[in-house]
Amino acid sequence: MRPADRSGATTRPDDARAERVKTIASLDNGHDNHFNLIRMLAAVSVLVSHSYPLASGMGTPEPLQDSLGITLGTLAVLVFFSVSGYFVSASLARSRSLLDFVAARALRIYPALLVVLFATVLAIGPALTTLWKGEYFTHPQTWSYLTHNLLLKDPQWALPGVLVAAPFPQSINGSLWTLFYEVSCYALLAGSGLLGLTRSRGRFALLLVAYLGAYAAYKLTTLRAPDSLDFQTATFFKFSLAFVVGMSCHALRDKLPLSPWLAAAGVALAWLCHGSALQYEALVLCTSYLTFLIGFGKQPLLLRYNRLGDYSYGAYITAFPVQQLCVHLLPGIAPLQLMAIALPITLGLAVLSWHAIEKPALALRKRLFAPQPALAGSSAEA
């Protein structure tokens, strides 16, 4: 006999099972999630992780480095990439054209970055340099800092005469280097959309097979000859794996269940793979799944955070120079003291960045583009 609901109607067993097993699609209802908070916590984790080498010098062990083989900051960046893979895929599906999608990504990355770079060159650099101001402003390295870091691919770490005696010397904003790989993942997604590989699960499977084949080739190459690939190629594969996991979660969102039991199995898998050749891959899968399980949870008190804004990007691109300033002004500062002082300053700058720069810039997208046929369609089609 079929179970009956309160109205007296019967419920099929398949329907009852569907009610018990929550898929990502069933939980993804707009902004009613915890991802703004998760991204902010990831940005804070990067600040915490960086506090150790910035205060105590290069080579200082960071949290999780000995136990997981990666730092807390790297783990936080993997969270950023997996979340980005999901939500940028959703942005592609909503985009009216390729130009609309590119504009959305550019408006998210560049306005705040441009302000931070100019503030670094025109304010922080002159305040910290050991050169005469005229020499600083006429030095070619001063202005190449802007061009190199706007192009992202080959970031410039140093400004002339700046932080030459710091514990972590001549690096004014060491967090910016990951932006190149973020944008590279956007390009991977945009190219997939142009080829129609995001229009259905069947087509996405072709993309996934091609990527996993390339990733397997990269993995085998690094296992046989660890130094045979250049840094940028190896790093792209490391970060893009988390991004592609996020893309996959979006493509399979109406089929992929979110369950604490599956999360526990993922943790067990990561533990079993610790120390093996698949340690990193298991960690990425486990971290990504846990991120989506928590992110799509519905904790009413935590959901109130969404009323504030998305402060994570502003925090990410301002934390490093704030920390270096603190180290410069307070010689001998300890890592925990650095966290305590730099965190509230960074949060204040992040709030200012969101409300004064990032949010207004994102609003331009709606005014720039008239409705056109969607570029990617729905990846949930059969």
Write a structural description.
The chain is an all-alpha fold and 382 residues long. The protein has one domain (38-190, 236-368). The protein has 16 helices and no strands. The protein has helices at residues 13-20, 24-27, 35-56, 65-68, 72-94, 98-128, 133-138, 140-151, 179-194, 201-224, 231-251, 260-273, 279-295, 300-303, 312-329, 335-368. Helix 6 runs antiparallel to helix 8 and helix 6 (98-128) runs antiparallel to helix 16.
The domain count comes to: 1
Largest sheet: none
> Which structural class is indicated by helix and strand composition?
mainly alpha
Q: Kindly state the number of beta strands.
A: 0
Task: Summarize this entry quickly.
This protein is an all-alpha fold. 68% of the residues lie in helices and 0% in strands.
Key features of this structure:
single chain; mainly alpha; 68% helix; disordered N terminus
What is the strand and helix layout of this fold?
Blueprint lengths: L12 H8 L3 H4 L7 H22 L8 H4 L3 H23 L3 H31 L4 H6 L1 H12 L27 H16 L6 H24 L6 H21 L8 H14 L5 H17 L4 H4 L8 H18 L5 H34 L14
Helix pairs in contact: 3-5, 3-15, 3-16, 5-9, 5-11, 5-13, 6-8, 6-9, 6-15, 6-16, 9-11, 10-11, 11-13, 12-13, 15-16
